[in-house]
Amino acid sequence: MKAVRTVLGDIPPGSLGVCDAHDHLFLALPALAGQELDDPAAAGAELAAFRALGGGAVAQWTPFGLGRRAALLPALSRAAGVHLVAATGLHQERHYRPDALARTAGRGLAGFFVAELTEGLLDGDDPAGPRGTAKAGMIKVAGMFHGLDDHTRRVMGAAAEAHHATGAPIGVHHEMGSAAADVLALLHGELGVPAGSLLLGHLNRFPDPGLHRELASSGAFLAFDGPSFAHHATDWRLFDSLVALAEAGHTGQLLVGGDTVVSAGRATGGGPGMPWLLRVLRPRLVTALGRQAAHAVLVDNPARALAAEWPATDGSPTTTGA
C-alpha cells in the first residue's frame, strides 16, 4: 500500500492535507554565501503561519550537504502540526566542495540515497556521521541551464537506482525552468523511472505552453512555484500556464509550491513566505480553475506525487551508480 514518508513516519496519502509541494526551511549554498537559511525560529514561524491558514504539509526539497538541518525537522513538524517530507539527493556540482562530493561515494551514491530513504537522514553534512530517526521521503536532483553535465547524469543515474530500490519520488530542479525535456528523456526514457514518480520543478520560470503540454503527455507531475525577486519576470504567467494545462486535460498532474524560502518569508519581513500559497494563490486558483480543480492541485495531486510503495525491509540497489 502506498504511503507518504514524512520525518515523523509514513502516513496514508489522504492524510497529507493541503500541501506546499516545494519549499525550503533550511538551505545553505556555498555558491551563494551570505544568503543562508539557518534560523530555526523563523522556520517554525513560517510553518505556524502556514498551518493557521489551513496548511497541512510541506515538501522540503533541500538535499544532502546544503544545510538542511535534518535533526531539527521532526520537532518543527510536531510543534507546527505540519507534515514535512524531507529530501535526500544532490544539487548541482557548483554548490559542493569537491571533498564533500567525494565522501558520498563510500557506499556508492545510489546506496547513499537509499540509506537516507530507508535508514535515516544524516544529522549533519558528513556521510560518516550519525543518523537520526527521520527518513527522507523523496530524492532531489538538479539539471543545468538548458543542458545536463556529467555530474547531473551521475546523480540522476543514482537517483534512478534508488527509486527502483525504494519507489521514492524524484523532484527535479530545472535551472530557470530549462532542460526539462532532457531530464525526462534521461530519467524516464533511458533509466526507466515511471513518469508518475517524477516531479518536474520550476516550470513557471520557462512558460512555454507547447513544452508544458509535451512534458505533461508523459504523465509526469509538473510543479510551478514562486514568487521571488529573481523570477518576478515570469511569475505573472503562472495562471496562463496552469489554465492552459487544465484545459488540455492535465489538471491531475499540476503541483504548486512556494519555494519562497524563509529568508523571503513573512517571519523575517523579506517577502510573502509560505502563507502566500494559501493567502493569495489559493483564492486565485479557485477563480481560475474552479474549486474542485484547486483542491486537486493543493491536496489530491501532491498526495499522489509524494506517495510510494516503500519496501517492507530496507532495500539496496544492485549497482552503485557512483
TrEMBL record:
Record flagged with keyword Repeat: no
Entry-linked Pfam families: PTE
UniProt xrefs under Gene3D superfamilies: Metal-dependent hydrolases
Chain positions found as N6-carboxylysine: 140
Keyword Nucleotide-binding: no
PROSITE patterns: PHOSPHOTRIESTERASE_2 (PS51347)
UniProt keyword list: Hydrolase, Metal-binding
Similarity comment: family membership: Belongs to the metallo-dependent hydrolases superfamily. Phosphotriesterase family.
Name of this protein: Phosphotriesterase
Lineage: Bacteria, Bacillati, Actinomycetota, Actinomycetes, Kitasatosporales
